[in-house]
Amino acid sequence: MKTSNQEEHKVTKKELNQVFWRSFQMEFSWNYERQMNMAYVFAIIPILKKLYHTKEEMSAALKRHLEFFNTTPHIVTLILGINAAMEEENKNDPEFDVTAIDSIKTSLMGPLAGLGDSFFWGTLRLIATGVGTSLALQGNILGPILFLLIFNIPHVLFRYLATSWGYRLGTGFLKKIQANGMMESLTLGASIIGLMVVGGMTATMIDINIPLKIGTGENAVTIQSIFDDIVPHILSLGAFGAVFYLLKKEVKPLMILIGLAIFGIAGSWIGIF
């Protein structure tokens, strides 16, 4: 049951905007024990200051949000908005179960991380990289500019809108998504798109050319043409597969890069590439 002082403890657009701007530092204070917890507290402090005016209430709220937290930083404002609504409800309703605040945050950070990683890291970033890299390889200055715009405009727009979405919708929206199975469908769809982009980039961005020839004169055939007749860009696919295999075997990426550099230099020196 809410108190008669509800209007005094109402989160406004001002506090939500402050949360939005503070959310950009979610990985600035990352730690191995509780990961994003300190950054999460920093982001939600404007909400807590608006609602709680005693030292005891503020201390309890800060401790509440210092628990373990980790999710995709681009969508964290959705959870922040939901928690803002729950903190408001906690302040205005003496019978509110305060443990639900951390429980909801903990239960949502995993599924949202799967969705966010698939879309922002696994899809949008790859699309931006593909467009930007293809232009950059041609010496076009629009390459890096488009990369930043394609990735950051949707990300910042979603981050801003999700703050108010989370606050308005509270916990109901995401519970409906999970109950209807839409979360898994969205994650699967984003993963498929990401894999398609990776496949396209493998064929267009990895260029391996073997100039060695078999035969002499007009009848000479390059080894490269033989491979391309089997499957176009099969060498690029093979290089990608070899690197992927080594990563699966937990070989350090730095060692793979060094190995590729040595292999490329040696191959060029003896005339293979």
UniProtKB/TrEMBL annotation:
Membrane-traversing stretches: 145-167, 188-210, 230-247, 254-272
Keyword Membrane: yes
Pfam families: EIID-AGA (PF03613)
Name this polypeptide is given: Uncharacterized protein
Organism taxonomic ancestry: Bacteria, Bacillati, Bacillota, Bacilli, Lactobacillales
Entry keywords, A to Z: Membrane, Transmembrane, Transmembrane helix
GO BP terms, alphabetized: phosphoenolpyruvate-dependent sugar phosphotransferase system
InterPro entries for this protein: GatZ_KbaZ_carbometab, PTS_IID_man
Recorded GO CC terms: plasma membrane
Alphabetized PROSITE patterns for the sequence: PTS_EIID
